From TrEMBL:
InterPro entries: DUF1697. It comes from the Bacteria. It holds the Pfam family DUF1697. This is DUF1697 domain-containing protein. It comes from Mesorhizobium kowhaii.
Length: 186
């Protein structure tokens, strides 16, 4: 970590969906700056932020941001904070490189923890359509050939797997990694 701090990405879930729980990205940037973070940038309206922190790890920052967010906006948003190295591994470990050029058909679910074998087996039983998935550590990679919006299986993932997480399409994953790399000077 440099004297400027370490670069992180925060993924907010459940904001700006269907006109509910509206959080303007300018307000989110101000909020994160108010917590002492620097080089704050946001990506699209669904709640993605890149920032630098002088101290703390991903787990500590997650708790800090979640608590402050709920206090400010009055509702809970599950937040996944990951560092640049984690994002680089997520991209390098993509089990579907042939789909990476079709970013609306490839999604990464950032999970709170690595699922157990039983949880994965339960989910595999539900995967009967054209979709396919693979879990590597705390990431579920989903290839949805007809897109996420038309995928019945995608809707089953949260309640079947029962591991909290938030999904991003591959375009967002690549954009966030690029933003984090720029903030980090990489």
């Amino acid at each position: 970590m440099t004297d400027r701090g370490k670069t992180f990405v925060a993924l907010f879930s459940g904001i700006n969906v269907g006109g509910n729980r509206i959080v303007k990205m300018a307000e989110l940037r101000s909020f994160l700056e108010g917590l002492g973070f620097s080089d704050v940038a946001t990506y699209v309206q669904s709640g993605n932020a890149v920032f630098r922190a002088k101290k703390g790890d991903a787990a500590t920052l997650t708790k800090q941001i979640e608590a402050a967010f709920e206090k400010k906006w009055g509702f809970h948003s599950r937040i996944m904070v990951r560092d640049l190295g984690w994002f680089e591994r997520l991209i390098a470990d993509n089990p579907y490189p042939e789909i990476a050029e079709e970013p609306t058909k490839l999604h990464a679910y950032v999970l709170e923890r690595e699922p157990t074998g039983d949880e994965v087996a339960r989910l595999a039983e539900k995967c009967t359509g054209p979709e396919r998935f693979e879990i590597k550590g705390d990431v579920l990679y989903l290839h949805a050939p007809d897109g996420l919006g038309k995928s019945v299986f995608a809707g089953l993932i949260p309640r079947t797997l029962k591991v909290p997480g938030t999904a991003r399409n591959w375009r967002s994953v690549l954009a966030l990694r690029e933003m984090a790399g720029q903030a980090d000077g990489v």
